[in-house]
């Protein structure tokens, strides 16, 4: 089943939200339906901790929990929008894993299509909730779709275990949820193509030097302390100012909803290709259905094993 660009553009545009007109105290978010997220609120800051199996894979459960949470903090749906949301992980080895390849591997069902489209809604929400600054605190592997989500947050800070990159081109696909557009914006076109086309990985110091990460910290404790200090400082200031500042930069720098929608439709078209489907079959076999084995742990570098 193909999803038209017009359909996606209409859906993504519907996620645009209004500026806040309130400053009510935050309440603790509702528990995540599938238990893949936990929440800790301090002042105007909410820390969201990801916990979804051995590699924090982006599967329908995590997609649903992320989408539900992001929708719930839109000013149009609540009077307690956080000024800052920090995403971290309970898994010391993984910040976020890839989008579950099972979702794109034939046979394609309606449930798989729904999950994939819901995943594509996450990027516009991260951008269009301009009342909240989203920070990724990365101290583990952050691969494929997980790397894409981190790129779409407002800031990224890396610890000593950060290891992040894309492998989608190795599957005959593209980074189709907007990630390649944000990567090009952050580190320039030439460097983005170098890392996308060759499936190279960034470590913390390299990513910080290129502008992918705001800063690299040599210990996990230093990383968390610095992120908390920054978030609490931002949380002191009026939310209207945060909203206008983020809105201005988003309007000037971010890819348009039309470009994001085109990215998704191009991904879906490539996914129909028998070559890509064959590569995905081999990928699932080598990764033991995307478990925490040696192949998965060494992505994106190991993607070349598909061609041996």
UniProtKB/TrEMBL annotation:
UniProt keyword Signal, yes or no: yes
Keyword terms: Signal
UniProt superkingdom: Eukaryota
Signal peptide stretch: 1-23
Keyword hit for Cell membrane: no
Assigned protein family: Belongs to the enoyl-CoA hydratase/isomerase family.
Protein name in the entry: Enoyl-CoA hydratase
